[in-house]
Amino acid sequence: MDIETFRVSVPDSQIQALKDRLANPLFPDELGGSAWARGSPLANVKNLATYWRESFDWRAAETEINKLPQFKTTIQADGFEPLSIHFVHQKSDVPGAIPLLFCHGWPGSFFEVQKLLPILASGNGKDAPAFHVVAPSIPNYGFSEGSKKKGFNLHQYAETCNKLMLRLGYDEYVTQGGDWGMMITRTMGMLYPQHVKASHINMVRSLAPTWRRNPLLALQHKLTPYSQRDHAGFARTQWFLNEGAGYRWEQETKPQTIGYALADSPVALLAWIYEKLHDWTGLSITLLPALHKALTLPPDDYPWTSDEILTWVSIYWFSTAGPAAALRIYYESKHDPNTATHAPSVGAPTPSNPLPQAKIPFVHRDSTQEYIGGPKLGVAHFPKELTVLPHTWAATMGEVIYQSENGHGGHFAATEHPEIIARDLRAMLGKEGKAFGIVKGSNGYVGREAKL
Question: Which residue among 135, 210, 315, 419 sits deepest, i.e. has the most Cβ atoms within 10 Å of its Cβ?
Answer without folding.
Answer: 135
